[in-house]
């Protein structure tokens, strides 16, 4: 009787070992596939805000993505102020990207404040830069 019991335990041990080996063999390729797939890019938005200094100009980014322009406006003239800056003032960049900015004034205006901060390292959440253009004639609203 004892001999049969040992054989039963031995058979149970062998079956368990084979089942475990089969399970490991079927999971290993799935894990290898998962690890070899590229990670999804994580992006965040970056906005260029141009303050209302009454001058005109453009803020651009490197790498490309931001190309935001505001038109000069005379507050004592008869025209209504421009509604919003034109162009691409918000763009998505991969988190960790360092973005630098250039502010270029339109004829008749100057850059009163270069983009601040500059450069910007993209992080999760809200990222921005700020710039101000003023008219050359000296009339400049400080924002």
TrEMBL record:
Annotated signal sequence range: 1-32
Query: What keywords is this UniProt entry annotated with?
Result: Signal
Tell me which domain of life the UniProt entry assigns to the organism this sequence originates from: Bacteria
> How is this protein named in the record?
Secreted protein
Q: What is the lineage of its organism?
A: Bacteria, Bacillati, Actinomycetota, Actinomycetes, Kitasatosporales
């Amino acid at each position: 009787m004892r001999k049969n019991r040992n054989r039963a335990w031995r058979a149970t041990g062998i079956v368990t070992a084979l089942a475990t080996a089969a399970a490991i063999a079927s999971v290993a390729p799935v894990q290898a596939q998962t690890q070899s797939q590229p990670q999804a890019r994580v992006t965040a938005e970056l906005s260029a805000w141009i303050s209302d200094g009454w001058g005109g100009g453009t803020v651009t980014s490197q790498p490309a993505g931001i190309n935001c322009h505001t038109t000069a406006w005379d507050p004592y003239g008869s025209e209504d102020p421009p509604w919003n800056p034109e162009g691409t003032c918000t763009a998505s960049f991969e988190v960790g990207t360092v973005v630098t900015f250039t502010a270029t004034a339109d004829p008749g205006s100057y850059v009163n404040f270069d983009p601040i901060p500059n450069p910007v390292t993209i992080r999760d959440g809200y990222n921005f830069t700020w710039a101000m253009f003023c008219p050359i004639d000296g009339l400049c609203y400080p924002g």
